[in-house]
Amino acid sequence: MARQVARNSLLSAMASLATTLAAAGSTIIVARILGVERTGVVTLALWLVTIAVTVASLGLPTAMTRYIAESHDGTVQRALARRFLWPTVAAAGVTFAVFASPALALWIEATDVVWAALAGEDRQTRVAIWLVLGAATTAQVLGQYRLGVLRGQQEFRAAAVVTLWAFALQMAATLAGCLTFGTLGALAGYALGAVPAALSCLATRGCALRPSSEIVARVRRFALYAWAGSVMSAFVWARIEIYFLQRFEGFEAVGLFTAGLTLASLATQGPLLLTGALLPHFAKAHASGKVDHLREAYASATRLIAFLVFPAGLGLAAIMPVVMPLVFGEAFRPAVPVASLLVVASAIGAASVVGSHLVNALERSDFVFYCSLCGAMLAVGAGFTLVPVFGLMGAGAARALIQLTMVAAGLWFITRKLGYRAPLRELAKLFLAAGLAALAARLCLILIPGRWALAAAIPAAMITYVIGVRALRALTRTDTDRLRSAVSLLPRPLSLCGRPVLMLIRA
């Protein structure tokens, strides 16, 4: 069982890594070719797509992963996938119609939400941009549904293939689009990246069996709360700060903030990619009544994710003065302070993702909604208070504080209401070891000037972290055994590199 979960996690990681690298790589391409201000324009336009996708998805991708995984009957799985495909198609079609509607364009122009960003474009180009955004939204809605179905069916290899094709297409299309058509081309590149997953919806097989009314009702209730929670979460996790930055600081501030968020995503998303198989695994364990196994799996997975994400986040924050201009260019150096703050906050928040999968597996998506609702209100309030006064750093501080507040609320709910012990002591030890590693990296930057400092900072941080984890006994023997199982599934060169590290940290 553990080996199967590790294999599924690695395949899921490949799929998610392709998506993360496509987003980050496209942002870097846009920043390098179009500059800071145009990066802000593209980001704001894509933020609208993110919000639209969240609304139009209806919470069904997560619901499919949760309930398809619960069933061991392939026929029932196909019946569920087919039953909720058509509401998804209908929502995607309505969304495209809205983006293509002249009424929407007139409303946007009148309220000055995004239209000012396109003031330098002719009317024909502006119309084309809205059509491209509609197409991107439609493709992402369909693609997310299909990927949710594949994860529920444990078809992680198929999901990886689809996302790898999407990665290659998006990178190539974004580069060609930026060089040829500027802002319109960049957005078209993002839209094309969503096409492979959307087309894979055609592979959804028909089924004569109809799912029972009981399971349909459970899916609907779960999806409703998941949908409402994701809409509220969009105000906290989906870059709501860029709207307020554009209103009060301009598009250059949006571009700088986007660079910080991109690096924060790269630092923390890598380890989080390994959690893609946890929701279906937890759902199966819950359906089978394996409570003790579920408790132990939650604690162990939380420790392992923190083991990976804490040094990645704190370490990147330590070397940010060199990394930011190296990746995005000197024009983005003013983003270093806010990027460092965002990376540290993201590292702490990332360790709570395992808990989110647990909450969904236990069918408590209602808590996700209420927690996200509170976070959304805080985000809007901070947008009207902190951003006008403190600008870029105000936006970063608001995002960090709200995310950490939601993490604390989640831990309280899991421990007090659900009765699952969070490994807080081990998390504190891992954070301390990561902090010592970050300090070693920053000392290298101070002592060695220029970009060559990275050649010393990264190995110094890694060695310090491994020694710290070993000395503090932050991982259990079970944790290291699971890491060894995962490392054994990697290609041989990577596996050989990982084994000495595991020997050093073994409790």
Automatic annotation (TrEMBL):
What are the transmembrane regions? 41-63, 84-108, 128-147, 159-182, 188-210, 222-240, 260-283, 304-328, 334-355, 367-390, 396-415, 427-448, 454-472
Q: Which UniProt keywords apply?
A: Cell membrane, Membrane, Signal, Transmembrane, Transmembrane helix
List where in the cell it is found.
Cell membrane
Topology class, membrane: Multi-pass membrane protein
Annotated signal sequence is 1-24
Q: Does the keyword Hydrolase apply?
A: no
Q: Which InterPro entries match?
A: Poly_Biosynth_Transport (IPR050833), Polysacc_synth (IPR002797)
Q: Does the keyword Glycoprotein apply?
A: no
This chain's protein is named Lipid II flippase MurJ
Q: Which species does the entry assign this protein to? A: Methylobacterium trifolii
Give the source lineage, highest ranks first. Bacteria, Pseudomonadati, Pseudomonadota, Alphaproteobacteria, Hyphomicrobiales
Gene name of this polypeptide: murJ_3
